[in-house]
Structures are given as structure tokens and as C-alpha cells.
Amino acid sequence: MNHKVYFEFPGRIVLIGFGSIGQGVLPLILRHIGIKPERMTIITAEDRGHEVAAQYGVKFVKEALTRENFRRILDANVGRGDFVLNVSVDVSSIALVKYCWERGAMYLDTCIEPWAGGYTAPTITVAKRTNYALREDALALRNGNARAPTAVITHGANPGLVSHFVKQALLNIAADLGVEASPRNRADWARLSQQLGVTTIHIAERDTQLSSQPKRVNEFVNTWSVDGFVGEGSQPAELGWGTHERNFPRDGKRHDFGCGAAIYLMQPGAATRVRTWTPKSKNFMGFLITHGEAISIADYLSVKETLQPLYRPTVHYAYHPSDAAVLSVHEFQGRNWEIQDSKRIMMDDIVSGIDELGVLIAGHKKNAYWYGSQLSVEEARKLAPHNQATSLQVTVSCLAGMVWAMENPNRGLMEPDDLDYRRLLEICTPYLGTMHGEYTDWTPLSDRERLFPEDIDKSDPWQFKNVRVF
Fold first, then answer.
1. Does residue 120 have a pLDDT over 90?
2. What CATH class is the domain 7-152?
3. With contact defined as beta carbons under 8 Å apart, do 4 and 33 qualify?
4. pLDDT tens across 354-378, in order?
5. Where are the domains positioned within the chain?
6. Which of 49, 156, 291, 448 could, after both became Cys, cross-link 317 (CB 3.0–4.6 A)?
7. Could you count the other beta carbons within 10 Å of the beta carbon of residue 295?
8. Strand ranges (DSSP E) for 208-281?
9. Cβ distance 402 to 461 under 8 Å?
10. d(CA 71, CA 61)
11. Residue of 242, 207, 281 lying closest to 438 (CA atoms)
12. Domain 161-389+421-469 belongs to what topology?
């Protein structure tokens, strides 16, 4: 089968990390970017995946990158005009961006990673363990580097792809409401969101993939990186904080630095649950896991005339992972946040299920609208090797971000919200299964107080107070 080559890349590509995402993105890169396997190198801390690298003829280096050795290891593989794709854990994104700029190379990652221990070290304040703080540190790199080699941060499925879903969804809602919309820049998108009356955006995801192997005691099972999920689940719960909110959480904290677009809670995201909705699963409870998009989307859609925003939506992730992962999180919490001794990523053992990933945009005249990808494991396996439903939504977004960066090689530090959503969706959509949009009359107050009275704010169903599960 012939696949479209989006860019003939003359440089080298270095892939850092080779877990489920690294293995899944490799065939997509070789399929859609013009590069020979001998110009690619994989650098990873673990031996897993070496047979996949050998299958494609890509050099495989097993060595963990640390603060002390990363320059020595990368120097032989990264130079001017090359590309570094970072899908690892415990390797500092900020250190790699700086390094790539020194070497004249481009860069992309799926989240802003600190060095090992940066999410949980007791010597680091809670405020500094947030994605808000990591994002502020990354954005500070923009000073004086507007024309540096393009470095795209946080461009996986989410954060990443969902920022493009938000823009397309806003246009769909505007068209259905008869609102003229042709946004050209950040200010236009923010004013459109305000004009539509959007108050709340959930990144609403339900993973129903099922393994033939039941989860065992003392085992953490997931459909993507266990270490990645454990790391972000151990961080404080975070959300973009909207101007419509009337009830500040009693365990909520504001930052005394940066853009001010988000707050955090004094508890882990994996211990915080929220109500949300997707078309197939209907209403369910998800974990309020911290993600970069909750902050960047809220910031991007803020309308400001002074230091205080006139308008900003509340934005947060609401994640129901696979049932095996939910059980793993419950056990993880019961162990006082000590990771289980055994880890397993579901892949070939998956027998059924989908990953339904989208954005639930609420508060407008039609109440709420979900837009996103409904991708089954069967479809994912047909579309790309070494993938299942969850991984493919991430890997194709990595590919699309790389293509955009190669087409725009000197744009400095870029977030997903800064990119051309049309180009990114053009590349991603063939791999996303069914792209679906659906309105719903569901609100967080639907069918509430059936068993007991609750402390809810009936004046506005989309208050965060009504979404959070106590």
C-alpha cells in the first residue's frame, strides 16, 4: 500500500524512549516522512523493543539519559538540521530543548518532563511539582529565541491533538448557532469562545479496551506507559480556572507566578474524580489527572484587557482509563502511592474495546457538544503496526507535530494551540477511526440527589463544584 510522504527530511532523527509510544510511532515516521532507517537512532533506558528496531533496521542504543550524561550520549547523534523526538520519562524536556537549540536541531515531546524525581521529590514544593510550573519554565525559554529551531512541546494525543479538536468543535458549534466565525489568531479564538458562551471544557476520555489477561495483585496494568501514568497521577490535580466559577475549592491553591490561568488541588490527580460525558459511554466518573492542555487551552482562550481576565473557561482532563488501569490506580493509592512491583502494558493481549477521546464543550446555547475520536483496537491494528487504540491516537499526533515542525523549522518554542489545527487534523484524521460530534442535554446535575441530598450549585450546572466527586 502506498502511503503519502508528507516531508522529505534530509537530516537525522533521534528517538528518545522506546516504550509503547516509541514503538508505535516508528513505523509511522518511516511511512510518512522521507528518511532512510539508517539515519535514525533509538536511545532508550530499557531493552524492550530492540526486536522492533531490528525489524526496521534502526540503530538501537540502550542507555538511560541523565542530567550528567545526556550531552555525551547525544553529541554523536544530534547536529544542525536534525530532529529529536522525546517520548521518554525522567528526561528533562527543558534541558533537551536547550540542547537542541545549541546543536541547531528541532524537537518534539508529548509532555514537559522533569529529571527523575521532579514529580514527587519531597524537597520540591507542591506548587513547583505542577504542570503549571513546568509550563512556565518552558515558556520562559522563548525570550530571545523566536527564530530558534522549532521545538514543539506537549504534542501527543492529550496534551496535543485535543487542542485541535477544541478549535474544530468551536467552529462546529458556531456554524450550528448561526454565528459567523473566521478566527485568525489567538485573540479571535478567545473572543469566539466567549461569544458562544462556553464556560467549561472537559477533555473527556473513556478507554474500554479489555485484556485477555486479568490484572494480578501487585501489578500495574495500563494501555500506555505505566511510569508516565504513575508520574502524572502522582502530581497535584490541576485545572484551568474559569471566570464563571463562584465556589473556590477548599483544597484549591493559586500560583503566585506566571499567567494565572490555572489552580491546583492539594491532592494527587489519581485521587480526584470528576463527572463527565462521552457519546458511547454516556455519563461516567474520570480521574482529574493533570495535563498541559488544561492550562494551555484555558490560557489560550482567555480574553484580557487588564491583568485580570474578562473571560476564561474552566478546562480539565476527565480520564477513565481501562478497567484494569482503574484497578491498578486503586491498588496504587492503597499502597500509599508506592508503585507495584510488576508493570504491564496491554498490547497484543487486548481482545476488544475502544478509546473514545474528545472534548466536551459546554455552557453555550445548545448546552454541551462532544467532538473527538472513537477508535477501536481492531481499527488501530489494521491502520498501523505496533499500535492499539490508545497508542495510535498519541503516535499519529507525534507524527503530525513532527511534520508541521519540519515544514516550519524556525519558529522557536511552540505549544499545540499555536499550530495550524487544519494541517494537524489533515494528517491525524485517517488514523483516528470515527471522528464524531454530538450534542447532549446532560449536565453534571443530571439525575443527582437520587439517594442523598448534595451540596450543589443549581444556579449553574457547569460549576466545577458540581463536576467534582467528593
1. no
2. alpha beta
3. no
4. 999 999 999 999 999 999 999 999 9
5. 7-152, 161-389+421-469
6. 291
7. 31
8. 210-211, 219-222, 236-240, 252-254, 262-268, 273-278
9. no
10. 15
11. 281
12. Dihydrodipicolinate Reductase; domain 2 (3.30.360)
